[in-house]
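Just curious: can you write a single protein's sequence together with how it folds?
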Amino acid sequence: MYQSVKLKSALCAGVSLLATMPAAAETVADITEISVSATKNEVEAFSVPASVSVVTREEMDDLLAASVSDLFVSVPGLSFGGGPRRTGETPTIRGVAGEGVVVLFDGVRQSFLSGHDGRFFIEPDLLGSAEVVRGGGSSLYGSGAVGGVISLRTLDAADLLADGERAGYRLKAGFQGASNEWMTGATVFGRSGDGRLDGVASLTFRQSSDIALGNGTTLSGDDEIGSGLAKISFQASDALRLSASWMGYRNDAIEPNNGQGNSEGDLMAKRVVSDTFRLGTRYNPETQLVDLQAVAYVNKAQVDEDDLDTDRIIGRDVETKGFTIDNRSRFDLGRRANVTFTYGGEYYRDEQVGTDNQTTDGTRGGVPDAVANTTGLFAQAELSLDTPMGAFYIVPGVRYDSFKNKAVGEAVETDESATSPKFAATWEPTENLMLFASYGEAFRAPSFNEIFADDVHFTIPLGPGLEAPNFFIPNPDLRPERSKTWEFGAGVDFVDLFTGDDRLTMKGSYFTSDVEDLIDLEVNFELSMACFVPGFPGTCNAGTSRNINTGRAIMDGFELEAVYSSLRVRLAASYSRVNGTDKDTGKYVGILSPNRLFTSAELKLPEIDARIGTRVTIAGRFDKVDDVAEERPGYETVDAFMVWEPKGGLKGVRVDLGVDNLFDAAAERVFAGVVDAGRNAKVRVGWIGSF
């Protein structure tokens, strides 16, 4: 009988995120990917009874990412809408987008949501790792985790310091040809001699212009970004660690009011200002009963848009204040079993202000001044068993949420609650094989934008000086979207498969979700008689719009990830398929994407301190639409890259060369007729050293 190393180590308190980083003495077989977001504890990603992908800092460096979406090219089930401009990027997981995906920066909720201004006000070069947990996650994260969770972790000093180093610096400069983008960055980091104090500070700047598309045309762009990070942590005692951080993002751009797609009209001067302030603590005394973590934060995000053709200035300002606290109590249940209980609570308050200098009261139509308060309590157990039939890892959990929405200055207030249970289990009959299954219920509370939307939605020009507006109508009776998801999967993990030091890991799953009370925008278009008959009583308008609960849906799909690594090569592949249909009408629902296959191949050349590789993405024809005009052809893109990290006197220097979309394919990735960027030559030079 064996004892599963993966399942046993999943519950060990001392496991660190640094396990994802290869040390000098480690072999290929030793390197593992650690997930924190899947269970709120450090667990080997392969063993989690869920679909979770971890993108390490080393993988991020190879991608030369200019935007967050560049980081996740290999992750199945995850796609990004918006188009070539980075400011409009919005994530979709398993066909669920918008409020159905939770986004976290160092555990801080990112609640800024708009129709076309994006969600990722963060610099990719400031990240230490990223995780994507696919599937309902409300049992831990509450509202919004119907599709899944995207969790980004910013750099720590430990990510950059080598063994024995006290302090260092990192300098970077790069260029990308498709958008004529220049990037420069500088980082300093260090820790005290006793290791109790460490910190990192970083600044990154990007400047880009027009984007060359794959069909030979050019998309106008004028983008300037400045990003900063300051983080410090202090080991106050053997048991207590304190941390504080600030992350800032500034973006000035000239682009259309709706920067998504290939739109060129209604140019606006956009200004994005985002600041995240975070305080954290971990108290871990020498007892198995207490391992307490707490985070308090304030996140402010504001987007102002100045119409270049008029005097109109509109804005959206969202502030989130919140905290989370959770504890872990661990128990040994004999030589062959142990359990970890994780329990805690969360509170966060979202407050939004919409402004428009062209309205009489200064408010903005469709962007109500409103407040949302959410309180959640959760509990989870992780049970590890070693039996004659193999190793078992069983994870039941449940969360209760109470959420209230209120429009500022209005008497109407909504008050709802939801309970989200989940049960998941992994069985390892042998050391090389794992099988898992899970059932979970998730929900998405209606946002204050959906509940309290008012004022003008859009206008229809009828002639000189005459137009008919369509008005939003608030709907305080909106119910939360709810889903019930089953998932079944399997994985294999082989060490020393073909050579003395190689590893093959493969994991795939099938999921099916039953979703009820879908929230959709209902537009009743009807021109009033007052628009055509002078003196007719009433107001000239073009009908009304309101958000309603409508329909039931079935979402299902299949995902697969595989990685083979040895001293000479690294091969990876992923595949995803997702479908969504209305149970009553049979029509397609959700933000669906084509079936997609991603592959990468890398050759390691230690003789010249280099690595070379290629990435290929193949997407099938997209015909999961109810309107033939929305169909999109399939596409294939090929990327090539080379990394040179010399030893000896040039140690610390790194040179990256690459070409994305090598054959200049006109890929229609997000919408019919919307073409992605064309061939994109990349270069970056970096230097990391110590003081």
Summary: Residues 5-445+480-517+551-690 form a domain with the Maltoporin; Chain A fold (CATH 2.40.170.20). Helices lie at 5-10, 57-63, 138-141, 157-160, 448-452.
